[in-house]
Amino acid sequence: MTTERLDQPRELRRTLRPHYDPEAFGRLSERIARFLGTGRFIVWMTVFVTVWVVWNMGAPQHLRFDPYPFIFLTLMLSLQASYAAPLILLAQNRQSDRDRIQYEQDRESAERNQAEIEYLTREIAGLRLALGEVATRDYLRAELAQLLEELRERR
User: Fold this and answer.
1) Cβ–Cβ contacts within 10 Å for residue 88, how many?
2) What does the alpha-carbon distance between residue 149 and residue 134 come to, in Å, rounded to a whole number?
3) How far is 143 from 146, CA to CA, in rounded Å?
4) Which InterPro entries match (predicted)?
5) How many CA atoms lie within 13 A of 88 on its CB side?
6) pLDDT value at position 22?
7) What does the pLDDT average to over 8-17?
8) Which of 17, 44, 113, 128 is 20 to 30 A off residue 144, Cα-Cα?
9) Alpha helices in the chain (DSSP H)
10) 3-state secondary structure of 6
11) Do the Cβ atoms of 52 and 73 come closer than 8 Å?
12) Which residues lie closer than 8 Å to 32 by C-beta, 6 or more apart?
């Protein structure tokens, strides 16, 4: 068992497997999935299929590359769908992970806010109790007015 030192960079390992950055691949899949969910994609796909069908029905016989049942077009659309579905699922999983992290942060923030509100509520209650024991200006005026009235009566 070898222990890796955390203050040293990792040694590069040579492998036969191709290296890819999962984060970059995830970002790319999200961009593709975002594009697949737009009206622009539907318009471009409609234009593509229409041009394909019109070309293979209206072009001279020697320039047609996919005759009437359009088997190659079906193959191309199936291939596109077989790649689109996993990319969309990957993008949804990444969004789900981001949402989960955001919910956790929101929950922690709400707990902190609740603790602060409870603290402030206790402080306000303590101030109210303390104010009940402190002589207010109106109370002092009333007492002084009463003393003044008593002094006048004694004279």
Assistant:
1) 17
2) 24
3) 5
4) DUF1003
5) 10
6) 83
7) 76
8) 128
9) 22-36, 39-58, 71-133, 137-154
10) coil
11) yes
12) 84, 87, 91
List all residues 6 or more positions away from 79 whose beta carbon is below 8 Å from its beta carbon.
none
Distances (CA, A) of 24 to 19, 29, 38, 86, 98: 12, 9, 22, 16, 16
- The tokens describing 16, both together, are 């036969």
Token couple for 129: 């109790």
pLDDT at 56: 93
Which pLDDT does position 139 carry in this prediction? Answer: 82
Amino acid letter for position 103:
Y
Q: What type of residue is 34? A: R
- Report the 10 Å Cβ neighbour count for 33: 20
Encoded amino acid at 24, one letter: A
What integer pLDDT is reported at residue 1 of this predicted model?
53
Number of residues that this document lists for the chain: 155
